[in-house]
Design goal:
The chain is of the alpha+beta class. The protein has helices at about 5-20, 25-35, 40-45, 55-75, 110-115, 290-305, 310-315, 330-340; strands at about 95, 130, 140, 145-150, 155-160, 170-180, 190, 195-200, 205-210, 215-220, 225, 235, 240-245, 265, 270, 275, 285-290, 305-310, 320-325, 345, 350. Helix content is about 25%, strand content about 30%. α1 crosses α2.
């Protein structure tokens, strides 16, 4: 869909929500919904009332859109320069990129400095550990009430005196979904190999790979991200945004001082009504215009197999799809039906030619 009617939809809806829409503008909004039924999803989500149960992660994912719209109504929306860039995607189909995130990269002059000061420069001492292997997940409830869902092949560590310290600090390797218990006096800090994430109470996803790739996607609340070894590495994310460092497909070591990986601010991706970045927490695999090489990485994690490419061309083939409660063979068959893949099995490996 063209950007013009999509942008017009959000502008008109903002005026309706604030009570300032004229009769003509309301008619325009209704006409856009008729001509572009795919926008009906956003409309339905934005008019839903807030839910009182903060622990309901399903509703949290649905309500973050309304939270961001409220930010737009406070004056941020009219400044087009603050909107994140929206890239065109081949074969976009049903993928809808949210354009409601308030800022491309916000550096908080005063408040962020206080949050940043709470983070230790060195990795804290850890004595408690929860780890998952390939093909497994685990849910951990920390002493402060924070709930952490660990994805496959991930590790979470924290101090035995975690609940008695002025800062709640954990160390993460891999990927995890956090629902942090609110406590303004005790910031929650996640240390990863190349970034620290500081929060007071929020819902978000963090992914860190051995290659140096880092990603955090914010569903609800606010997080401050400090990228290590960078002179300009401080960011604050608002609901609907995700920050990415590096390339998921880069197998090299983290770039050194003179070759820092690029930093990108983007918006969370939806495929139909599913939030792609957190779909794994519901045992779903969702691919939105994703290259096969990245899909292979996820399949390796979930099913504990090794996928070997013997064709660079095959790596770049892109797919859309949502899978729930299906096995690896079925996923491969469905992908093959969408866009042919020449593959076969050798013991516990999948060979793609």
């Amino acid at each position: 869909m063209d950007r013009i009617p999509e942008n017009m939809f959000f502008r008109l809806f903002a005026r309706k929500l604030s009570g300032n829409a004229s009769a003509e503008e309301l008619e325009q909004l209704e006409e856009i919904l008729k001509q572009h039924p795919e926008l009906q999803f956003f409309y339905n989500e934005l008019i839903k009332p807030a839910q009182p149960h903060e622990g309901d992660l399903e509703r949290a994912e649905q309500s973050y859109v309304a939270d961001v719209m409220n930010m737009q109504l406070r004056g941020v929306w009219d400044n087009d320069n603050l909107l994140p860039p929206k890239r065109s995607q081949p074969g976009r189909g049903k993928i809808y990129r949210l354009v409601l995130a308030a800022a491309v990269a916000i550096v908080l002059v005063g408040g962020f400095a206080l949050l940043k000061a709470t983070a230790k420069k060195s990795t804290p001492h850890t004595s408690n550990e929860t780890a998952t292997t390939k093909g497994s997940k685990s849910t951990v409830k920390l002493p402060d009430g924070t709930v952490v869902m660990l994805n496959a092949n991930s590790r979470l560590q924290y101090d035995e005196n975690f609940n008695k310290m002025s800062r709640r600090e954990v160390v993460l390797e891999g990927e995890a979904y956090f629902d942090v218990a609110h406590n303004e006096e005790r910031p929650f800090i996640i240390h990863t190999k190349n970034a620290d994430v500081t929060v007071l109470g929020t819902v978000f996803n963090v992914k860190t790979l051995q290659s140096g790739y880092f990603e955090t996607a914010l569903i609800k609340g606010k997080v401050a991200v400090h990228l290590k070894n960078r002179s300009k590495g401080d960011f604050v994310l608002t609901p609907g945004q995700k920050l990415m460092v590096g390339d998921k497909n880069d197998s090299d070591e983290i770039a050194g001082e003179n070759k820092l990986s690029p930093v990108r601010i983007d918006t969370i991706t939806l495929l139909d009504s599913l939030v792609v970045e957190t779909s794994w927490t519901k045992n779903q695999l969702v691919f939105a215009d994703k290259p096969l090489v990245e899909i292979a990485q996820e399949l390796e994690q979930v099913f504990g197999v090794k996928i070997i490419f013997r064709s660079d061309k095959a790596k770049q083939a892109r797919y859309n799809g949502a899978f729930s409660d299906v096995d690896l063979d079925e996923i491969l068959k469905i992908l093959d039906m969408s866009k042919p893949i020449n593959y076969y099995r050798e013991k516990n490996s999948i060979i793609i030619e």
